[in-house]
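re: ur question from yesterday

yeah so i grabbed the chain u mentioned. its 214 aa long if i counted rite. heres the sequnce exactly as i have it in my notes:
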Amino acid sequence: MNILHVDCSPRIESHSRALSGAMVQKLLERHPHATVLRRDLGLEPIPHTEGAYAAALATPGAMAAALEANLTNGDLQLSEWLIQEVEAADVLVIGTPMNNFTLPSVFKAWIDQLLRVGRSIGMSASGEKIGLLEDKPVYIGIASGGVFSGPQARQPDFLTPYLTAAFGCIGLKSLQFLPLQATAFLDPAQLAANRETVLATMDLEQIAAAPRAA
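ran it thru and got these C-alpha cells back, copy pasting raw so excuse formatting
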C-alpha cells in the first residue's frame, strides 16, 4: 500500500502535524509494509500557478500543445508530477491548520496544480465537470484554534465544503475529516486526549474496500 502524507503547517511542532503523523502511524500499524511518500507543503511550499500555466490551459489548442511538449517546456510539469503522486497513492493523509476559516494558501497552491481540465477533470456534453482520477480514501486532519463544527461551533467553516467540492471534481469522493478543535484553549493533556478521541473515529474499513493503485 502507498500512502501520500501531506502537511500544510509551517510549524514543526504544530497540532495538525502531530495529528497527521498519528494518522499515518495508525495506518502503518494495520499495514506495516506500506510505503509513505511525504509532500511537505508547509516547509517546502510549491509555487502558485503562474501566467505560463494559465496560458497553457486557456484554450483546447493551447492545452493540446502544452501536453505534447509537457516534459520540455515545463509549464505543466509540476502539475503532472503532483497529479502522478496522487494517482500512485492508495491512501492520502493530509494535515492542515484552519487559517481564517479556510485552508492555508500553500494547500490551495497544491490543489490548484491538481485540478487541471483535460487531465484530472473531464467535461460532460452538458458542461458538467467529471473527475478523471480513481477514488481512494482521503483522511484530512484539521487543527483549529477555535470551534467550527458541532453544537459548540462559534466560527464559519469554509474549509470542509471547499475541499469536498475540489477533491470531488477530480474524482476523490471518499473523504473523512478529522477535526481537532479549540487548540488555542486546551492544555497539553486535554489536547492529547482529544487527539486520541479524533483518531478513534478513523474509518479504516475504507481502505479494505478501496482499489489498489497500480
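noticed a couple things. The chain has one domain: 2-209. also Residues 2-209 form a domain with the Rossmann fold fold (CATH 3.40.50.360).
anyway ttyl
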